[in-house]
Design goal:
- The complex is a heterodimer of chains A (about 525) and B (about 400).
- Chain A is α/β, with parallel strands linked by helices.
- Chain A folds into three domains: about 5-45 and about 65-80 and about 245-325 and about 465-530, FAD/NAD(P)-binding domain; about 90-240, no CATH class; about 330-410 and about 415-455, no CATH class.
- Chain A contains 17 helices and 20 strands.
- In chain A, the strands form five sheets. In chain A, strands 1, 2, 11, 12, 13, 14 and 20 form a seven-stranded mixed β-sheet that branches. A seven-stranded mixed β-sheet of chain A has the order 7-6-16-17-18-15-19, with helices on both faces. A two-stranded antiparallel ribbon of chain A has the order 3-4.
- In chain A, strand 8 (about 230) and strand 9 (about 235) form a beta hairpin.
- With about 400 residues, chain B is of the alpha+beta class.
- Among the domains of chain B are: about 10-55 and about 140-220, 2-Layer Sandwich (Gyrase A, domain 2), CATH 3.30.1360; about 295-395, Aminomethyltransferase beta-barrel domains (Elongation Factor Tu (Ef-tu), domain 3).
- The model of chain B has no long low-confidence stretch (mean pLDDT about 95).
- The chains are: A alpha/beta (about 525), B alpha+beta (about 400).
- Chains A and B meet through helix 2 and strand 9 of A and helix 2 of B.
- The complex binds flavin-adenine dinucleotide.
- The site of flavin-adenine dinucleotide has 38 residues of chain A, from helix 1, strand 15 and helix 16.
Chain lengths: ~525, ~400
């Protein structure tokens, strides 16, 4: 038999991190598994590329936190090269030249926050404790297949009852705060704890990442909470930087998948899922090959999973309508720089230890809201929010010795521009970001050796994430948990028997997290046993 | 008054935490930065620089130096040609361990030895029949450890010998025009080097290393990270994994090399008629299998650990700070079978690991154990198992 005709037990469409996780679990369970990736490399939105000789860029995704700790253990990722470098600092420059610089010492942070507001320094611990309790309450839901709210099956009813019990056991304050996060704005919550602009600006930044909301929009609370669900060594809300970037991490996943026996085929775009009598039996590749398997898993986003890979006419009309209305509306871009050296922050001259973690350009809620305002009316922010990091300060292998790469995650950059298009605006966005950086770090321009601008359109074109939404669909309450990606289809199955979904458009959602891939595998393996 | 090492003029201002410890009477940094994890990951991913000058250093020199050491040290130094270093131990007549250290065979009739405790009197008392002089050169030399994957890239800018040295080889070379002895050794389980430099040249060498390392994130690291790294590497520490038999009162306080996992040092013993201190007892122990316990690695079951804390309404702590005191180990029937000597959450391995002494019956790789933890002031147990050491063993260490 030629390779093209080999029969597999399971085929995973898409070698993004969720496809790799899914394929690894399926292979580990004993299924002969094939992962098909359209591009010349695996990783999807989590790749690292040498886009300028000697300089390795995290083209898209750049930091790691959400990856579920159980996946690290179960897929033996350490053995396969996992190395999450600790990011010990956060620098938040201010427009008046001052700054908030946080590190790893609790009381040093207290005093640094107190420099801006004593009340905020006092509130910081209370806020953290509250947030940790909410995260701890959500964690079991995050890491399990969500119940199907619309099923009458005794098992599902029992799981709903379990969920109710879990909620009832939470202390009232934690439950109340959870509801506020899930429904309210980040600004309202932060206003309850803090008064200084810089503190609120910094803490509100995770409430907008990847999402078309401002910190004052209802729904930004959920985005903030989601980002705090990540952890490093058991500490919620901490981030790390993987050796070699997030592309280094997806290479680790690929090795793990292969170590369990999964095959990975590159340059193997899938054009459609082949089904017979309502049952998926294989896939057709863009090159005309067909590969057959009992289980087909789409690791792509819901639009591609339901509206492109299969014929929507095979699906219930309600589902087709829900997916058609599912919100993507990407607002994020990347601008990556190769730098000749480290920038200097005027208020801290000669200090080059400031850049070992995030550099947060979002000095107040007003600043971020104003950036959002531009996007509401169809243009990119004139003074954007930037989440920057200079990964080479932690990983010298990213660059030639003494040189640096700077990754800038930029908002807001709406996928749909009102009076222009992204092919025309690409370098204008690059200039805007560079000028913004120059305004905080004088002489920044002199350091720039090379620049790569990645617009939402580029994200869609390269990775396939519809409308450039970094999470394969907005983190809006009606698109989460019971409803991700659509009511009744939150358990990784589809109406086509043997066809499953495991991308970031499924629970728990986007980020480099692996949860969708793992939970989908759990569902598939469970279904096969029946 | 506490002493300062030859590098203190540099290490002093670098310690932004002002956290210092006393080590053998010297002031040394516990950590330099608020984030010891930054130092730790520098050792694992870039390069870390550690001041080990407080170690006691001895020069053993003379026509009989090799002969003398072959009888005093338990591992056969005869196997260590000029230009090589050897990790070794020395024992008393009963085969109890006195200390461990590294010997450098620097010249035909000359060895250098490092030790954690003073040993001059001990060696001198044994040296009378030999043509050998033993000198304490502790204060004449500064000692640095440059450890981590980029240590070679840094050193090769300063001396061509860096690239030539294989694991545990050494050479006399120059750094910044200063004479140094460079060895491919260390206490972190990573690619790394140690550098002996005359105290008057110490700062010049420090500066040259920091300069050459600036493009590789060279980072000075303190005691805390050294201990974390040595646990990853499964390397023992005096007064933690064992106590010297010299000052022990009862055998419970003493350890044999076999018990500490050093049987490999005696593999060719039948073919080697060399008399050495403790030989008879060690042979007996090997034949009669009379070891009371074995030093093993243990690893905690991550899932049970999570469940234990979650069940109590707590977030399971993952603390990388080494606990270098005993935590009890039981078998499935809650019989006491041993204890940990060192324990921590290894941040690179994403596991709780420990060095432990367990009864030989439980020392096999994979043996299930129960580890006692104190949670909310209550003793509780969590599943663990015996695993092979080193826990962390990158190929570059010996490549
Ligand atoms: C700019 C940007 C920055 C981000 N920053 C972070 C961050 O710092 N930290 C974080 O945790 N998350 C971040 N994210 C989000 C995170 O990276 C994504 O949510 C996540 O990587 C999505 O993974 P996935 O496996 O679900 O899908 P994808 O990564 O989208 O993977 C899908 C894969 O399928 C392939 N494919 C597409 N069509 C086909 C086909 N027809 N046949 C075969 N293969 C196909 C694609 O090439 C791709 O490899 C970022 C995302 C972006 C875009």
């Amino acid at each position: 038999m030629s390779q093209a005709q080999t029969k597999y037990d399971a085929i995973v469409i898409g070698g993004g991190h969720n496809g790799l996780v899914n394929g690894a679990y399926l292979a580990k369970s004993g299924l002969k598994t094939l992962i098909l990736e359209k591009r010349h490399l695996v990783g999807g939105a989590a790749i690292t590329e040498e886009l300028y000789p000697g300089y390795h860029f995290t083209t898209f995704s750049y930091a790691l936190s959400l990856i579920r700790p159980d996946i690290v253990q179960e897929l033996e990722l350490v053995k396969n090269g996992l190395l999450v470098l600790n990011m010990p600092t956060t620098l938040a420059p201010m427009e008046n030249g001052d700054y908030l610089f946080l590190g790893s010492d609790h009381y040093a942070n207290y005093h640094e926050i107190a420099r801006h507001s004593k009340a905020d320094a006092e509130a910081y611990d209370d806020y953290t404790t509250m947030l940790n309790k909410v995260c701890h309450a959500v964690k079991p839901l995050f890491d399990q297949i969500p119940p199907n709210l619309f099923s009458q099956e005794p098992d599902e009813l029992a799981r709903l009852a379990d969920l109710g019990r879990h909620m009832r056991h939470l202390d009232p304050k934690t439950l109340h705060m959870l509801v506020r996060f899930l429904t309210g704005s980040a600004a309202e919550i932060l206003d309850d704890y803090f008064e200084s602009d810089i503190v609120k600006g910094l803490f509100s930044s995770s409430s907008i990442i990847g999402s078309k909301v401002g910190p004052r929009s209802q729904g930004s609370g959920l985005v903030l909470l989601f980002h705090k669900m990540g952890e490093v060594d058991g500490a919620f809300g901490e981030w790390g930087f993987h050796k070699g970037g997030n592309g280094g991490f997806t290479q680790v996943l690929a090795r793990a998948a292969q170590s369990f026996g999964a095959d990975i085929r590159l340059n193997a775009g899938v054009s459609s899922v082949i089904s017979k009598n309502g049952e998926a039996i294989g896939v057709a590749l863009e090159n005309g090959d067909e590969v057959y398997a009992d289980v087909i898993v789409s690791a792509l986003d819901p639009r591609r999973t339901f509206l492109q890979l299969v014929d929507p006419r095979e699906l219930p009309t309600d589902l087709v309508e829900d997916i058609s209305k599912y919100k993507f509306q990407g607002v994020s871009a990347k601008v990556n720089f190769a730098l000749d050296g480290l920038p200097e922050y005027p208020a801290l001259p000669g200090r080059f230890d400031l850049y070992r973690g995030f550099i947060n350009i979002g000095p107040s809620i007003d600043y971020i809201e104003r950036a959002f305002d531009d996007a509401k009316y169809g243009s990119f922010s004139k003074r954007p929010y930037i989440d920057a990091c200079i990964q080479s300060t932690l990983d010298p292998d990213m660059t030639p010795p003494g040189k640096h790469v700077l990754s800038c995650f930029v908002q807001y950059c709406p996928y749909e521009l009102k009076d222009s298009d992204w092919d025309s605006e690409r370098e204008n966005l690059g200039d805007t970001v560079q000028n913004t950086l120059e305004s905080f770090f004088p002489n920044f321009n002199d350091l720039v050796l090379h620049r790569e601008v990645v617009t939402p359109l580029d994200i869609e074109r390269t990775v396939g994430l519809s409308e450039g939404n970094i999470f394969a669909g907005e983190f809006l309450a009606p698109q989460m948990y019971f409803f991700r990606p659509a009511p009744g289809w939150n358990q990784y199955r589809t109406p086509i028997r043997g066809y499953y979904q495991c991308g970031s458009g499924t629970h728990p959602g986007g980020c480099v997290i692996g949860g969708p891939g793992k939970l989908a595998a759990q569902q598939i393996i469970g279904d096969m046993k029946q | 008054m506490v002493k300062k090492t030859p590098f203190f003029a540099r290490t002093g201002p670098l310690n932004e935490t002002m956290l210092w410890e006393h080590w053998a009477g010297y002031l040394v940094a516990q950590k330099y930065q608020y984030s010891e994890l930054y130092e730790y990951y520098s050792v694992r991913n870039s390069a870390g620089l550690f001041d080990s000058s407080p170690l006691f250093k001895y020069q053993i020199k003379g026509a009989d130096a090799a002969d003398f050491l072959r009888g005093v040290l338990a591992r056969d130094i005869g196997q260590c040609p000029v230009g090589r270093a050897q990790y070794t131990i020395w024992c008393d007549d009963h085969g109890w361990i006195l200390e461990d250290g590294v010997v450098l065979h620097v010249d035909d009739d000359e060895y250098w030895l490092t030790a954690a405790e003073p040993n001059l009197r001990y060696f001198q008392n044994l040296s009378h029949p030999y043509e050998v002089t033993i000198s304490d050169i502790s204060e004449e030399y500064g000692l640095l450890a440059l450890q981590g994957p980029h240590s070679r890239n840094i050193l090769k800018q300063l001396t061509p010998d860096a690239e030539k040295l294989a694991y545990f080889e050494l050479s006399s070379t120059q750094i910044a025009q200063k004479n140094v002895v460079l060895s491919r050794t260390g206490y972190t389980g990573d690619l790394g080097y140690e550098i002996w430099v005359n105290k008057d040249d110490a700062l010049a060498v420090w500066d040259a290393l920091m300069e050459a390392g600036s493009g590789y994130n060279i980072t000075p690291f303190g005691q805390k990270v050294l201990h974390m790294a040595r646990i990853d590497a499964g390397l023992i520490l005096i007064d933690v994994e064992y106590h010297t038999a010299r000052h022990a009162w009862v055998d419970e306080q003493r350890s044999s090399p076999i018990e500490l996992g050093f049987s490999w040092m005696f593999r060719g013993l039948q073919e080697d008629s060399r008399p050495f201190i403790g030989r008879r007892a060690i042979e007996n122990e090997l034949v009669s299998r009379s070891s009371r316990w074995h030093l093993v690695g243990i690893e905690v079951d991550w899932q049970r650990y999570e469940n234990l804390y979650n069940g109590l309404g707590l977030i399971a702590p993952k603390d990388h700070t080494p606990i270098e005191e005993a935590m009890a180990l039981y078998d499935g029937e809650h019989n006491w079978v041993g204890h940990t000597t060192s324990f921590m959450f290894s941040s690179v391995l994403k596991k709780h690991v420990g060095l432990a002494k367990v009864a030989p019956y439980h020392a096999k790789s994979g043996s299930p154990l129960q580890l006692e933890l104190v949670v909310n002031n209550r003793p509780l147990t969590v599943a663990a198992k015996v695993v092979k050491m080193p826990f962390y063993n990158p190929a570059r260490k010996t490549a």
